[in-house]
C-CAP/cofactor C-like domain-containing protein (Galerina marginata), 236 residues
Amino acid sequence: MDTANWTFSQSFTPQFQAMRSDLESQISTAKSTASPPPEIIQGLSVSLAKATKALADATGSIPSYDQKQYEIQLKALEKSITDLRASTAPKSKFAFKRKPQAPAAAPTTTTTPPAKAPEAPTPTPPSSSTTNLILSSHTNKYLTRSDLPDHPQQTDLSISDLSNCIVNLLPPSASASTSTPTDERLIISALHARNLTNCVILLPSIQGSALLHDLTQCIIVLGCHQVRSSHLFLPP
């Protein structure tokens, strides 16, 4: 620092500190007053502005460290004046009350019952031109068409669980055919024979297949397109 700046710094420092001290004293006095008039606060602002201008004019002529410290001191004084002005500002005696908003009506939820789906028509099982004719659970009997339950003219035949029986379902002789009732005529679509023991089965020609299962020492006479069998036990 040259001699001129050093000389200015030596004279500026006590002047600035005197201005700062005087301003602090005025602020302290104003704070002790219950309600300082606006003129007092305005005078404090003017004094702060003079000190700020003086420091700005001294820029470059005083040490940088000193200038930084003086700026911090002025900032503190400025804050004190701002707080004092805020504490003495007149409070409004009246305030427009904000009309409370009516609570929004809750949205009405209308539940509409789901449209009833049209009822699907009940599926009708396909009609069959044949039904099953069952001949089962006999022992030591001679069975003919007269022993059969009521049945349509065309049907599948199921024979099961017979022991020591003769089943004769051959049609009547030609000479007696004219006197045979219509419901005694029998057209067999397919044969299902199961679990027969020591039986003789005499059948007319059938239109479909013959399925034979679990037969022991049996004789079966028939005409058919196909025979499928399993577990057949023949006499030695």
Notes: Confidence is low (pLDDT under 50) at residues 124-130, 174-180. The chain has two domains: 1-88, 131-171+184-233. Residues 3-32 form the longest helix (30 residues).
